[in-house]
Design a protein that fits this description.
The chain has 11 helices and 9 strands. By secondary structure, the protein is α/β, with parallel strands linked by helices. The protein folds into 2 domains: about 5-175, Rossmann fold (3-Layer(aba) Sandwich), CATH 3.40.50.620; about 185-254, 2-Layer Sandwich (Pantoate--beta-alanine Ligase, Chain: A,domain 2). It is globular.
């Protein structure tokens, strides 16, 4: 059965019990509303480590839009059942006051990659992401931490942060898991209507074509998407669009 840890103090008690002494720890940070994409990260952690910790914390500091935070799906009972089915050892389910005992006075800021792509359209977003991940990594001190490639910009920033601050953790990128029709799995997909989800399938389909970024953006807008960006960096093409009230991100190798 998955042990629920509600506070940092409780986790320290686990550490002091020496249950984890000499064992490897895998860590999967999430905001809940778990799906098969999360499951793929968790399954890999369970395979590769003696113990696996999953956190569920809807991190308010990474939401630049209060309505987005308010509408973020929360499905704790379903999440817990999935974690138990996957044989996760520990679920960390803290409250804001425990994680942000400083009320976000101290934060991690990156000055280049975090300012483009999603960072350009979501000011302060990556400050919140990097700060909470730094806190969680310091709490759990895992050997490996697992992040999905759907948020590829996020993965690069977290990996870079860990290298810059000499954190003794291996950041493991895991492939995007997609629905049969091609849409990348995301907790926000649950906020789409059936019709919107069908319409959203055009986003990854066009992103994978050999057309130019400008042509893809133009075609997406023509059929009804609101497009934040379509850009290529290195060997990847990145995109962010709005479908109704839901913002979706994608990236594909080129």
């Amino acid at each position: 059965m998955t042990q629920i840890i509600r506070s940092i103090h409780e986790w320290k008690e686990v550490l002091n019990s020496r249950v984890l002494s000499g064992k490897t720890i895998g860590f999967v940070p999430t905001m809940g509303a778990l799906h098969k994409g999360h499951a793929s990260l968790i399954e890999r952690s369970v395979r590769e480590n003696d113990f696996t910790v999953v956190s569920i914390f809807v991190n308010p500091t990474q939401f630049n839009d209060p309505k987005d935070l308010q509408n973020y799906p929360r499905t704790f009972e379903d999440d817990l059942k999935l974690l138990e089915d996957l044989k996760v050892d520990f679920l960390f389910y803290p409250d804001y006051a425990d994680i942000y005992n400083d009320n976000f006075k101290y934060k991690i800021n990156e000055n280049e990659l975090s300012k483009i792509l999603c960072g350009k359209f979501r000011p302060g977003h990556f400050d919140g992401v990097l700060t909470v991940v730094m806190k969680l990594l310091n709490i759990f001190r895992p050997d490996k931490a697992y992040f999905g490639e759907k948020d590829y910009q996020q993965y690069l920033l977290i990996d870079g942060m860990c290298k810059a601050f000499f954190l003794d953790v291996e950041i493991i990128p895991c492939p995007i898991v997609r629905e049969p029709e091609g849409l990348a799995l995301s907790s926000r997909n649950a906020l789409l209507t059936k019709e919107e989800k069908i319409f959203a399938q055009n986003f990854p389909r066009l992103l994978k074509t050999k057309k130019s970024c400008d042509s893809i953006k133009s075609e997406l807008e023509k059929i009804g998407f609101k497009v934040d960006y379509i850009e290529e960096i290195g060997n990847r093409r990145f995109g962010a669009v709005h479908v109704g009230k839901v913002r979706l991100i994608e990236n594909v190798e080129i």
